[in-house]
User: Fold this.
Amino acid sequence: MRRRFLAFTLVTIAACTASARATSLNVKDFGARGDGITLDTAAIQKAIDTVANTEGTVTFAPGTYLIGSIFVKSNVTLQLDKGVTLLGSQRLSDYPVMPTRIAGIEMSWPAALVNIYKQSNASIEGDGTIDGNGKIFWESYWSLRKAYEPRGLRWAADYDAQRPRLVQIFDSTHVHLGGGLHLRRSGFWTLHICYSTNVTVDGVIIRNNEGGRGPSTDGIDIDSSRHILVQHADISVNDDALCLKAGRDSDGLRVNRPTEDVILRDSIVRDGAAVVTIGSETSGGFRNIEAYNLTGLDHVGVGILFKSAHTRGGWGENIRIHNITLTDVPVVFRITMNWNPSYSYAKVPDGITGYPSYWKVLATPVPENRGRAHVHDVRISNIKAIGAKTAFDVDAFPEMKLDHFSFKNLHIVAITAGHISDAKDWKFSHVSLTTTDGSVVALSDDSDIEGIPSLQAPPHQRKPNPALNSFVEQDKN
Assistant:
């Protein structure tokens, strides 16, 4: 009996030692079924926890794994190869509520489907699929918003309709995500990178407009984070595609964390609100941003978009956007500093009591002198846009102008030129702007723009400048 016990003990020790040395574990060995019916959350999490801190890899046999929130740990690679699908549960109870930031304020919110939460040296790799199966969450949002809007609560709907994001990287460092990964049907934002550093997203395919068009299904949101690289993305969403954020209003000003040292490159946006968006959550500011070699196609609303509100505050500086190709994108360049007022300005109507604490946070007044975002030192170059409706749609505030913008090597074919208001020290060079209606850009009286006669002409002049009929070879600097 003692001999049998000793033998069992030695086998157990050997098994544990082998497990400790293992660099690759398959979730099926921990009880995952992969049949698309059984909830596999616990089995997958157990595999991840076993590998954690051993620089190991969690693998999957081909199949569909129904899950709620899972959490990738430090030194773990979640390997999702072709034929593997992580399918999101449609029960909100399968997504634990955790401290996070959502749409610009810190609050508790359901975890994402796949999370890297306060970890380091973690990755999600492979050409498999993470599918949020999010339509049920889209419908819950529309239902709540329909009830809220007549009560003056449009701004609260996005916060009260708790919808899981697909992937969140939160307060983490040295993270890699890519390898042809397919991200589908997110219940809310697709990939949210928040309070994180040294993150690379390389080769993701995002498809959210399948089985409907989900509200606020952003593609990649980079939020108060730094040293971020996004490249080789292929995006179809129903809101912003590549979006930079930095906090909302009083809470964003309190946190005061910028988004900085970001590169967005070599990507295509097939569907979405804009190719590149800065805002509307601008409170913490933006610095050292570069976006280039990006393509926008005909289901995209805007090429380059800056948006904020007069309660957001913040700033943007040293922003460079270049080598952008737009085909049939309606608006080439838009800046709005009074974006979506019914959403941007939170006010609790009289007579409403017992509301959640984050309503009070959202409705906290921001002093006027802190509320205007100051965007300056922006360089735009090598933009080619054909089939546009409007070239420029720019509005800011007379008391906080858009300062020191330069535009070089623009080739734009549009129906109408549009307008620029509240600009200071804007310089244009080597611009070809062809408009179907023969218009030139209308300027506000206080705008300070130089360099192109057609952009300086008063609005009543309708003849295009014949000198501006060719696209100058791209500037390589």
Remarks:
- The first strand starts at residue 24 and ends at 26.
